[in-house]
Design brief:
It contains two helices and nine strands. By secondary structure, the chain is α+β, with helices and mostly antiparallel strands. Strand 1 and strand 2 form a beta hairpin. The longest helix has 20 residues. The protein is globular.
Length: 210
């Protein structure tokens, strides 16, 4: 709950000479309430920081031991994540993806953000992101030196209701580390309400000065 009224040491509400009109105070509280609600409701990815310690919420290929023809290694590890304590490690010889269903609405714009790290030398490897089955990010990520945590952002549009997000690579025996995967709607839900409320807030102040 957002409170917009302060109190003096005696506990009674202050009525300073610069106190806002009642309508302005109520509108300000409503504006802050909408802002907090919108900010808390934006995230669409489940377990994007892997802080559960598992791949909960994700579809993940099975691991394959190194002695097999097509080894693969997918694991959530502890320590030195971008934020929090955990991150995911992705490594396979064939192009394999971790993926998740995202609860989108057709015709709506979104922004994808994720952080990658390459702990060692990784030359000529492409990191791929697919959205609704189509590549939206294909870049050489890595090099002759380790890459520290680096953020990547990708604009997205949902063509269907319920979109499929995938992260793929062919890094084995190297690996990619990924953390803080996020998909949010743009503009954020409630932005229109915020702008409208801001206009209402401005009107009483303007009239007061005349």
């Amino acid at each position: 709950m957002v409170h917009c009224c302060s109190a003096d040491p005696g506990g009674a509400p202050r009525r300073d000479s610069y106190a806002l009109p009642a309508l302005f105070r109520l509108s300000a509280c409503a504006l802050l309430g909408v802002s907090v609600s919108a900010a808390s409701a934006q995230e669409l990815v489940v377990n994007g920081g892997f802080e559960t310690g598992t791949f909960a919420g994700w579809y993940v290929p099975p691991n394959g031991p190194p002695h097999l023809p097509n080894p693969a290694f997918f694991e959530v590890s502890f320590g030195a994540g971008h934020s929090g304590e955990r991150y995911a490690r992705l490594s396979s010889t064939l192009l394999q993806f971790i993926s998740q269903d995202i609860p989108t609405v057709a015709g709506t714009d979104y922004e994808l953000s994720f952080w990658l790290r390459v702990p060692g030398i990784l030359i000529g490897e492409v990191f791929t992101v697919r959205w609704e089955g189509e590549p939206v990010f294909q870049e050489f990520v890595g090099g002759i030196q380790p890459l520290p945590w680096t953020q990547f952002t990708v604009p997205l549009t949902a063509n269907i209701t319920g979109s499929f997000l995938e992260f793929g690579q062919t890094a084995f025996p190297g690996e990619y580390h990924i953390d803080d995967i996020s998909v949010v709607q743009v503009p954020a839900p409630g932005a229109g309400a915020l702008l409208g409320m801001a206009g209402l807030l401005a009107l009483p102040r303007k009239r007061h000065r005349q």
